[in-house]
Amino acid sequence: MNDAERGHRLAVLLxxxxxxxxxxxxxxxxxxxxxxxxxxMAASTAWAQSGPAMLSPLQVILKWSPLLLxxxxxNILISLLSxxxxxxxxxxxxxxxxxxxxxxxxxxxxxxxxxxxxxWLVLLFFVMFLVPFQVTLFKTTxxxxxxxxxxxxxxxxxxxxxxxxxxGAVRSIPxxxxxxxxxxxxxxxxxxxLIMLPQCIKRMLPPWMNVYALVTMSxxxxxxxxxxxxxxxxxxxxxxxGGRPELFAPLYGFALLCFFLYCYPINLWTARLERRxxxx
Amino acid sequence: MATSWTPDQPIVQCVDVRKxxxxxxxxxxxxxxxxxxxxxxxxxPSGSGKSTLIRCINALQPISSGSIQIEGIEVTDPRLDKLxxxxxxxxxxxxxxxxxxxxxxxNVMMAPIHVLRQNRAEVEARAxxxxxxxxxxxxxxxxPGELSGGQQQRVAIARSLAMRPDIMLFDxxxxxxxxxTVKEVLVxxxxxxxxxxxxxxxxxxxxxxxxxxxxxxxTDRGVIVEHGPPDTLFTAAKDQRTxxxxxxxx
Amino acid sequence: MQAIxxxxxxxxxxxxLNFSVFYDAYDWDRYFSGxxxxxxLSVTTILLSLIIGAVGALLQGSPSILxxxxxxxxxxxxxxxxxxxxxxxxxxxxGTMLPAVETAGMRVPLLNNVQWxxxxxxxxxxxxxxxxxxxxxxAVPRTTLEAAEALGYTRLKAYIHIVLPLAIxxxxxxxxxxxxxxxxxxxxAYAIAVPETLYAVKQIWSESQNVFEMMVLLLATxxxxxGILVWLMxxxxxxxxxxxxxR
Lengths: 280, 250, 247
Description:
The complex is a heterotrimer of chains A (280), B (250) and C (247).
Chain A (H helix, E strand, L loop, with lengths): L28 H17 L11 H41 L4 H16 L2 H11 L3 E4 L2 E4 L2 H26 L3 H9 L4 H31 L11 H11 L7 H29 L4
Antiparallel strand pairs in A: 1-2
Helix pairs in contact in A: 1-9, 2-3, 2-5, 2-7, 2-8, 2-9, 3-5, 4-5, 5-7, 6-7, 7-9, 8-9
Chain B lengths: L11 E10 L2 E11 L4 E5 L6 H8 L7 E6 L2 E2 L7 H7 E4 L11 H11 L5 H14 L15 H13 L5 E5 L7 H16 L3 E5 L3 H7 L2 E6 L2 E6 L1 H6 L4 H10 L1
Helix pairs in contact in B: 3-4, 3-5, 4-5, 5-6
Chain C lengths: L1 H14 L4 H4 L1 H36 L4 H15 L3 H12 L5 E4 L2 E4 L3 H26 L3 H9 L4 H31 L11 H12 L2 H29 L8
Antiparallel strand pairs in C: 1-2
């Protein structure tokens, strides 16, 4: 509801704000982790009939956790790299979206819409299959391993999302700021860099962190296209332990747990930042 | 619940009503009685508990101690039939609170249809008549967003009247309106009073109170300081607090 | 129809761009059935997630902590874990734990992969919907509820007739965003061999070796599907507009 409704004196509907659930019983991440872990173990041990030579699910996880955690670290690496790449490209694209030069803005809008509307998995396939596995530049052959291609594949939707975040943040600054800058004879470029963007950083932070959480959770898609990350390793561990069906739940449960412990604090922090920087 | 109430007894009777919000006591022993057909105005500085009192009368807020009886029905009774109470008491709020997704006519028609389960055709006829009575004939199909504040408030009055209450409560209904539209609402309330409706108003409109009210209560900090017919209260108030308040607002 | 097929055949012969889907009946059948599966997944998950989300949002407002805590836990867990891992957990983890049934002499799992995909994706989207609906409900001022109460509405009736209609109108943009995301997330079902569009197209390009063209087709398909969904949502938003309160 915008200022026009203020003319009606009393807002009939309060401004809409997407609020994360306030857990009345505050469960800190470590206790949540322990709770989840116990739940998953309890669920799976109920079914595990371990003979003398077979390990119980808990033992399996303990035995393989170094490897799985290394795989998880690899996921994090991919997420960080694609976030960096995507952010740089996204800021550029976002500025192009806001440009005064109409054809540039239009072209950027098309690119943004294209990468935002395409499913992440399809984009990943696109990059994996169509980017060659090695590239020859100036007589040197640079091999492009799968995970680099996957990183680029994730960077594309990140770029589009970051562009939208940038555009939304700049748009949310009241037009009076632009007018004030213009009357002080700042050029559009100076206005953007000296006045708008510094104010925008705060507004951009929570949605940007949101995008990061999304990327982190999307890195598991790389397992579908053959990159050796945590999920692929989980499947391999499962096969190594004899492919017992009752090990599926604990192993995937462990993966869920790792991602939960990583992403939940990020989301809590994002919510806290959003509350602090709440824009009226 | 069969009551032995007869019209010669007070229609609203509050006896030593106390209300606390946590540690803060907002109503400190209010007693008042209203006869059928009377118009009562409650005036006083903000924070004196007027709005709380009127909400307690309508069972929107529970009271900490004391008794409120409406037509013989004890409001504090845990087995209170709220629907029966709401049929007797209508309330109009400061913020109109019309339902924005329904037209004016639908707003007026909604409660009798959904709550009282009355026949749709006769409810519609009654709703149109009520809107005509508050001088909004022709605005039946407008949405609240398309109406002015005064018009919305009149729709709110019509909406409460559709439930055919015996008592109408008004909680500072003109406080949020532009000065031009205040008059149209007051005229509507005045006509209601002249038709014989029992009205309890919390208001800042002193002139209105003086002209229309049968009895005026002055509250301050949770107690009734003084009460009496408007002529006496406004010209010859006995208590110093009353005099001070009146000198500020008149 | 034949004209389209001929045109694409000519295109292949002249430029080497092989859109086999359009001139080869077998490829078209596979693509089309994949499309139908995507539509099935999208529609069922959207509807289910809306219902679960609405129920969850109502429970979240309940005074009893016994009802609130499970809903909060559900939302927190499903929002902070990857949907693909959730899918695997459901299909492989829980699927193997459920009893198998005997049909036609074979032991088949109780729920097949399509059904598990629907369950997993609906729960994932519902977690977001609970928050969205909750925020919509909270945007309705308490005073409106008070007015409804003063007219004699019970809490439940007030929710159904007044709070929910208003809440939905307010949260529609965020809800639409979520539903579009859900459409895109249906591609994850590929990982458990659900024959949806991505799966079908991959089969086609594995045989016909026309990866690039099929990719273009795939991206165009999802572009169009998303476009249709956004248009439908826009129409819904228009229909629900409250006159007098311009957005």
